[in-house]
Design brief:
Blueprint lengths: L5 E4 L5 E5 L3 E6 L10 H7 L3 E6 L16 H15 L4 E6 L1 H12 L4 E7 L7 H17 L1 H13 L8 H12 L3 H13 L15 E6 L7 H10 L4 E5 L6 H4 L1 H12 L8
Parallel strand pairs: 3-4, 3-5, 5-6, 6-7, 7-8
Antiparallel strand pairs: 1-2, 2-4
Helix pairs in contact: 1-10, 2-3, 4-5, 4-7, 5-6
């Protein structure tokens, strides 16, 4: 039997899990999820890499973010985790909110990032998209997490849910149902306002970069990924046909194939 990941907690209160050996690769989940949402990718990638998954601030078993948190607080959490694990640098894969964290890390401390992948990332929302996400934030603040679970899942998986996505839908629902209301709200407030955080800064990324999303993702659109890829020299952009937002859970095999092509590229030399 394959042993499960080794789990731990940093001094600052970040819960994490580590599996496998090889080039270190950190996976950063999105709002409302937790480290174990990466289980399909963790199990596949740990055959060749040292894979680190962790709970974002305010998620799972990690400490809460401060009130009025910014994207920098989440990037600092990632850097502190690397310090705790004795990793001078690593590759980073982020999904949704995690993609914003991964990109901020790659820009802020480029020497600590050997490669970066932004999956279903948001970038320069249109006025209509910005109004929609601000409306969802207002509903979260006024009605609480439980009232937002059903509409969130409908956006991610459709309504009714296709039979092929039933297990992914159940996994996402379990994460959302267990979400800490304070951590979720504070993190979503960052996600809802940080889509322009990297405008004019992406060209600073020197590591091999991947921008990928689902063709049917109306929130992290293919146009967004394509626009980001144009800003980063030598980067690649991949769009999964027939896929929506939760590509990591709903289409793990296809997502792992995309990551595999990116991982086949030489990484920036580790410090």
């Amino acid at each position: 039997m394959t042993p499960g990941p080794a789990r731990g907690r940093t001094r600052a209160g970040t819960a994490y899990a580590v599996a496998g050996d090889g080039e270190p690769l950190v996976l950063v989940h999105g709002v409302g999820m937790r480290a174990d949402a990466w289980a399909p990718q963790r199990d596949a990638l740990s055959r060749t890499h040292r894979v680190v998954c962790y709970d974002l601030l305010g998620h799972g078993d990690s400490a809460l973010p401060p009130e009025g948190a910014t994207l920098s607080d989440y990037a600092a959490q990632l850097a502190e985790l690397l310090d705790h694990l004795g990793l001078a640098s690593a590759g980073v894969v982020g999904h949704s909110m995690g993609a914003l964290v991964a990109l901020e890390h790659a820009i802020a401390v480029p020497d600590r990032c050997t490669r970066v992948a932004a999956l279903n990332a948001v970038y320069r929302r249109s006025p209509a998209q910005r109004a929609a996400v601000q409306g969802r934030l207002a509903a979260l603040e006024s009605d609480g997490v439980p009232a937002t679970v059903a509409p969130t899942l409908a956006r991610w998986f459709g309504d009714p849910v296709p039979a092929a996505l039933a297990s992914a839908h159940a996994a996402a629902r379990a994460c959302l149902a267990a979400a800490d209301p304070v951590g979720y709200r504070r993190t979503y407030a960052v996600f809802a306002t940080a889509d322009d955080a990297h405008v004019g800064r992406l060209r600073r990324i020197a590591a091999p970069a991947l921008f990928a999303t689902g063709a049917l993702d109306a929130n992290s659109t293919p146009a967004m990924s394509e626009a980001m890829a144009r800003e980063v020299e030598g980067s690649t952009c991949e769009v999964l046909a027939g896929a929506g937002r939760m590509t990591t859970l709903a289409h793990p095999g296809r997502r792992e194939a995309v990551l595999g092509r990116w991982l086949a590229r030489p990484a920036r030399p580790r410090r």
